[in-house]
UniProtKB/TrEMBL annotation:
Keywords: Heme, Iron, Membrane, Metal-binding, Transmembrane, Transmembrane helix. Residues 49-149, 193-308 form the Cytochrome c domain. It comes from Spirosoma endophyticum. GO terms for molecular function: electron transfer activity; heme binding; metal ion binding. The chain crosses the membrane at residues 7-28. This is Cytochrome C oxidase, cbb3-type, subunit III. Coiled coil: none annotated. Gene3D superfamilies: Cytochrome c-like domain. Signal peptide: none annotated. It comes from the Bacteria. Pfam families: Cytochrom_C.
């Protein structure tokens, strides 16, 4: 008997020592770096239509994390990220050659947007990756970054460096990884196929699932629809003034999803203008997505009808939060 206790003790002790060792290693080594990638020297043609499309995408993606109060993409503090993950700042992505991305090549930008890895092999865990954005759309984003539009004009302003918590660092050694660079063309959806357009707009452009699924970290970025709790919502986020907000259940579950609340027209209004059917305003970080067209958002609604229904009573959780606050 004593012997068994001793053995168990030794095993548990070793596991704890290993874990402690791992945490110390992670705390010291920080975010892992990878081999510097081989990057193609493709060059993006900057055309007026690409700039316009790139700007529409940037307005719902890049601007929300990178734009300062003057609407320039000089980087900022990401207040909506729970403290658990540390104090996170985005970066200056204006055309400045020193503080911004002025001396990145088009190939390096696209490689980074797809994989999360910079030319020197360093990895940016918080910046979303865009594995499913069509080649044409990702080139449009680059065209916008190269354009003479106001937000991207060179600026030397610079945010603080991020301070990742130990939990975030552990995540970058476990769940959060760079994505592989796509080996084939990523095609645009057939715009006559409403469901395909809706899925593409929601998953690849709007990144809606990343907030409206079951977990903020445990997600499949390459195959979003296999993510845990896909569109079932329920993630707690930090809204304006530190207020807690919970992401909505966007599935068509009759009791707890959006089926009851929203007609297609009301859904389009909520997503584009940020207003619910009852006139209440949606809280940050659910920002109005005006740059998506009625057709694109309508297509998201049609697509959500096809997504497996999830029973998740977010309204109930919201009510509990209200009570807890009192
Ligand atoms: C959820 C917030 C978020 C969104 C959305 C976002 N970024 Fe970022 N981005 C970040 C953060 C945070 C960093 C800094 C990462 C780091 O320091 O490791 C970053 C870093 C970058 C960098 C690297 C800059 C450097 O000097 O290393 C580029 C380029 C970039 N983002 C471009 C974009 C573009 C283009 C878009 C839109 C398609 C975009 N980002 C959308 C948060 C975001
Ligand atoms: C950065 C995280 C984030 C992203 C990205 C996001 N949402 Fe949201 N969304 C939220 C949060 C948080 C709420 C809850 C807001 C509240 O309760 O006031 C919300 C609420 C909503 C609602 C309102 C539901 C209700 O309760 O009445 C709809 C509709 C919605 N989102 C659709 C979308 C669509 C479509 C997309 C993609 C185009 C999207 N969201 C992207 C965070 C996000």
């Amino acid at each position: 008997m004593k012997k068994i206790v001793k053995i168990i003790g030794i095993v548990l002790g070793s596991i704890l020592a290993l874990l402690a060792g791992f945490c110390i290693y992670v705390a010291i080594s920080g975010v892992p770096t990878y081999d510097p990638p081989t990057i193609s020297n493709l060059k993006v043609d900057v055309t007026a239509s690409r700039i316009a499309r790139g700007e529409a995408i940037a307005q719902i993606q890049c601007m929300s994390c990178h734009a300062d109060k003057d609407n320039r993409v000089t980087g900022k503090y990401l207040a909506e990220v729970p403290d658990l993950f540390g104090k996170l700042y985005s970066k200056n992505i204006t055309q400045d050659t020193e503080k911004g991305i002025g001396n990145w090549t088009d190939g390096e930008l696209i490689y980074f947007l797809r994989t999360g890895v910079r030319r020197d092999g360093s990895y940016a865990p918080v910046m979303p990756q865009y594995p499913n954005m069509a080649d044409e759309d990702i080139r449009s984003v680059v065209a916008w970054l190269r354009s003479d539009r106001f937000p991207v004009q060179a600026s030397k302003q610079e945010p603080q460096a991020s301070e990742l918590s130990l939990i975030s660092k552990v995540l970058t050694h476990t769940l959060m990884k760079p994505l592989p660079y796509p080996q084939t063309l990523v095609a645009s959806p057939d715009s006559n196929d409403t469901i395909a357009l809706g899925k593409y707009t929601a998953d690849a452009i709007g990144d809606c699932y990343s907030c409206h699924s079951g977990d903020l970290i445990d997600q499949d970025k390459v195959h979003p629809s296999t993510s845990k709790g896909y569109y079932g919502g329920g993630i707690e986020m930090v809204g304006d003034g530190g207020k807690k907000v919970i992401t909505a259940n966007l599935t068509f579950d009759q009791e707890t999803g959006i089926a009851k609340t929203y007609t297609k027209e009301q859904f389009i209004r909520a997503v584009r203008m940020g207003v619910r059917p009852d006139g209440s305003i949606l809280n940050y970080p659910m920002e109005p997505k005006l740059s998506l067209s009625d057709r694109e958002v309508g297509a998201i609604y049609d697509y959500l009808k096809t997504v497996p229904k999830i029973r998740n009573n977010v309204a109930q959780k919201n009510a509990e939060l209200q009570l807890a606050r009192k």
